[in-house]
Every structure is written in structure tokens, then in C-alpha cells.
Amino acid sequence: MPQSPIHQISVMIVEDDISIREGISELIQSTDGFRFIEAHSSCEELMACIKHPLPDVLLMDIGLRGMTGIEGVRQLKSLYPELTILMLTVYEDNDRIFNSLSAGASGYLLKKMPLEKLLEAIKIAYSGGAPINPTIAKKVLKLFQKVAPAKETYNLTDREKEILEWLVRGLSYKMIAHQLTISVETVRTHIKNIYEKLHVHSKSEAVAKALRNHIV
Known about the structure:
Rossmann fold; alpha/beta; Arc Repressor Mutant, subunit A; single chain
């Protein structure tokens, strides 16, 4: 029985620097396991001719004449959500990194990276990964930590949070009452309010939600 041909990763490029464009094109064409489709010097040029079947991976420059690479990514992802796009750029500033990834890019690479690393990054992206240069990765982590959504408090009072924390630690109603020097009935009332605010119906559900959402 004949073996199925090995899939070659198809690659398309948008880059306005002709030397870089031709260098990457030649690299891909001469490497086993890759298939070069075509290169474009602008997003407008690409938009005018891109069609199915789409490339497995599209390499996109940012500092293009006319439409920027970031806007190109945004428009392409709205038309072809399944398209995998890697930014390949000289820029390392936070705004461009954040805006590129927010627009839908699957990775952010610097042009100064070794060519063999570029081929490796294309393979990672094709496999569903998100290749990012190590120096950029640190910036990305800090960026998304800064813009992470605020922790949901569910409008719990300080006392309710305190009691929920004791529940998470495994204390009984009686033990919580002793810790806080309040009656067991008061603890029950607080826990009833906690259940209502968390939209749960049992201690195990409340503890699970508290841990999952980092409430305490």
C-alpha cells in the first residue's frame, strides 16, 4: 500500500524589504518539509489575491507602507479566523507587541533571530503553538499581567470573605464560630449569604468556586 505524502508546511510572506523578502523566500523554498507559496510587499497586495486554500502560516511584517501589519492581521482574522499569522518584525516596544497579539497574531518574532529558529517557529505555529522570542515573552507576560481582569469579589463583605476562607481551610461551622468569637447561627447566616452571592448550593461548590476564581 503506497504511503501518504508527507505534508509540507505552506508559507506566505508580507514584507516590504526586498532583501529580507527574498532571503526568507529562498530559505523556505530550499528547506525540506516547507512549501513557499508567494510573497507580497504590502497588506493591500495580499488582500487583493488571498484565497482558499490558505497558507498554513503567514509571516507578517509590521512597518509596512500603507496598511500596517497589525491592521492587516485584524482584517485577515476577521475574514479568515483559521489563518495562522506570525509577526516578523524589528519592533520590540510594548504597544506593537500587545496590539499584534490582541489583533489575532499567533506569535511575535524578531527579524534578528537565526534563520533556523524561524523555521522552528513556523513548525511550532503550524502545530498550534504560539512562538515568541524569549526577550519578547518576558514583555508579554508583564503586559498581560498588567491588563489582567480585576479579581471578581462577588460583592462579598470582609466578614463573608473571612468565613469563606475558613471554609476553604476545612473548618466546621462550630470551629469558625470559635475562631471569630461569634455564634454558630451567625456563621450560618453569613454562609447562606455567601451561597446566594456565589450562586452555589453547598459548601463543596462554594469552596470550588472560591479556589477556581481566586476569591480568597
